[in-house]
Amino acid sequence: MDKITMAHGSGGKITHSLIKDVFFKHLGNDILERAEDSAVIDAGTGNIAFTTDSFVVKPLFFPGGDIGKIAVCGTVNDLAVTGADPKFITCGFIIEEGFSCSDLEKIVKSMAKSAKEAGVKIVAGDTKVVGRNEADGMFINTSGIGVFGGKNRRLGSSDIKAGDKVIISGTLGDHGIAVLSKRQGLEFGSEIASDCAPLNGVIGELMEGFAGIKFMRDPTRGGLATTLNEITPDSGIGIMLEEKNIPVLDGVRGACELLGLDPLYVANEGKIIVITSPADEAGIIKVLRNSKYGKNAACIGEVSSDIPGKVCIRTRYGVTRIVDMLTAEQLPRIC
Amino acid sequence: MDKITMAHGSGGKITHSLIKDVFFKHLGNDILERAEDSAVIDAGTGNIAFTTDSFVVKPLFFPGGDIGKIAVCGTVNDLAVTGADPKFITCGFIIEEGFSCSDLEKIVKSMAKSAKEAGVKIVAGDTKVVGRNEADGMFINTSGIGVFGGKNRRLGSSDIKAGDKVIISGTLGDHGIAVLSKRQGLEFGSEIASDCAPLNGVIGELMEGFAGIKFMRDPTRGGLATTLNEITPDSGIGIMLEEKNIPVLDGVRGACELLGLDPLYVANEGKIIVITSPADEAGIIKVLRNSKYGKNAACIGEVSSDIPGKVCIRTRYGVTRIVDMLTAEQLPRIC
Description:
The structure is a homodimer. Chain A is α+β, with helices and mostly antiparallel strands. Chain A has two domains: about 35-145, CATH 3.30.1330.10; about 155-320, Phosphoribosyl-aminoimidazole Synthetase, Chain A, domain 2 (Alpha-Beta Complex). Chain A contains eight helices and 14 strands. The first copy, chain A, has helices at about 15-25, 65-80, 100-120, 175-185, 200-210, 225-230, 250-260, 280-290; strands spanning about 40, 45-55, 60, 65, 85-95, 120-130, 140-145, 165-170, 215, 240, 275, 300-305, 310-315, 320. In chain A, the strands form three sheets. Chain A has a seven-stranded mixed sheet with strand order 9-11-8-12-10-13-14, sandwiched between helices. Chain A has a five-stranded mixed sheet with strand order 1-2-7-5-6, covered by helices on one side. The first copy, chain A, has a two-stranded antiparallel sheet with strand order 3-4. Chain A is globular.
C-alpha cells in the first residue's frame, strides 16, 4: 500500500499492520510493543500508567455527548482499564480558523464537567490554529497519567485462563449508532444516545471488591469483536461468546440491520469488558447493575482452550462461527 | 470575538486571552494555571513533569528537520527546561486519507532518530485517519513525562532577581525562517536550516554544573520576545536586552528585513534561554559553546528592577524601547 486509507484508522487488521510495519519497526521497545491501552512505565519512584488518544469524531456534537466529553472519558477509561487510578490529563487542541468561539466554550465546559465527574485534573494544554479547510472543525488530543497502589493493581491479559468469564457492562453499539445517525441525519424511532461516560468510578469499586478480576478493556473503535481479538492471537486461549446473552438496544439492533452493520464491531465509549475467574462473576454483575452506567451488564461468554487464538460466537440458532477482526473500516471518524 | 482566528494560535496576546477566558475559566486548577512548559505533578510517589504539544508545521519537511523531529524535540525540550529528565513520550497521529506511506515512514524514522539522540522511549501511540481535505497532510501530538532527582531539580521563575543574567544558547529565528522560506519557495542566498534539536543533553550538563541557574525556557512559537514577556508580567522584575549581543545569522537577518519580521519574535526549536545568577554566567556560556547546539551562545541581557513587568531592549543606536508581546500572528503553522 502506498497511500494511507481510511482503513488505516479503523482499528482493524490494516491498522494493526501499520502499527507493526511502521511504528513498531522504527519506534519499537518493550513498553510500546505490549500494545496495551496505557503504557505502564517506571517514573523513577514507582509505576504509573501513561496513555494518549486523538479524537476526530464527526459531528462534534451528537446525542449523549460531544468531542470534549469523549476526549476526557476516552483517556480516563484507557487508564482505568489498566487498573490505574486516572489522575492527570493534558489536552491539545487543533482548531480550524473560523471555528465558533461559543462552540469551543461549550466543548471546554463539557470537558470540565467530565473531568470533574471522573476526578481528574487537566494540568497542561496546547492550542494550534490551522487555516480554513486545513482541518475539519476541531481535533482534540488527550493524554493521561494514572497511578497504582492500594486497590489499583496492574491488570494484564497474561493471567487469563480457560473457564474465566467474559462480562460486558452494558449494551453494545450505542455510541457508533448515535454518531452515525446524527452524521447522516438518520432517525431510528427513538433517538439513540452515545454511552460516552467515565468508568473509573465503577472500575475502582470492582477492583476493590473482586480479586478474581484478570483483565479489563473498553471496546471502543472496532467494537467488542476487535478488542477481544486483540487479546487472543498469541495466547493459547480463545473466547466463546453466547449471542443470546449479548445486550443490544432494540433501536441499535434495528439500525444495524438497516445499515448492514454488526453491533459486535460498532464502537462503544462507556462500556467495559471484564474477564474474571468464575467465582466473582455474579458479584461483579451485581455491582455493575447497581452502578450508573452498568444497568444492562451481563456475562456474555467464557474463555476456552478449545479454540486457541480465536473468538467465536454461538448464535441464537445454535451455530458457532468465528468472529474475526475486521480488515478495514466500518465507521470512520467515530471517536 | 465570535470566531477562532489564526491569531488565537499565535502564542501571542490573543492566545493568552483565549487561555485565560476559556481554558482557565472552565478547566482551571492550581497546576494548570501555573502555565509552565510542563506541569509538575505528584504521581503518587514523587513529582514528575508532564507536557503536551500538537504540531501542525507546514510544510512537513523543511531544511534541518520535519514534523517528526520537531514533535519529539519540542516535547523533550519542554520537559528539560522545567529541570526534569525527559524519559517517555506518546505520539498521536492524525493523518489525511491519501497521505504517502513512504512519507509517513520517513517521519516515523525521523522521530526514532530524535528519540534515540534524546534518550527517550516512545511508549504509546494512537493513529486516526480523516478524509481528504479534512486535515492538511498530517498533524502529530506528542506528550511526555520527565523525572526529577539528582541534578534534575525543579526550576521556576520565582527565584529570578535583579542582576541575574539572561543567556541565549545561539542564534535566533533560524527555525521560523527555514520553514517560511521552504513554504513560500523563497531563497536567501545560502539555505537557512531549522535549529530543531533535542537540548536535554546540554541542559543536563548545565544543571549538573551550575547551581546558580534559576530558570530555563525554549523560545518557540512567538520567539524570544513572547517567552520573556511570559516571565515578567506579574513579577516585580523586568528584563533589559542588549541588541548588539543578540546572535542572529546574517541570512536570517536579511530575510527578516526583506519580509518585515523581527527576529525577536521568530520561532526557534533548538534554543534555550537561561537565567542565572551572575557568578555562573561565564561558565554556562563556556559549556554551551562547547556543546553541539550552543556554539553561538551569548549573554544578551540582565534582569532589572527598574522596569518592573517589562521587557526592554537597548538598540544598537543606544535607544531603549519596550519589547511587547505580539497581539496577533506573525507566522502561522510554524510548529
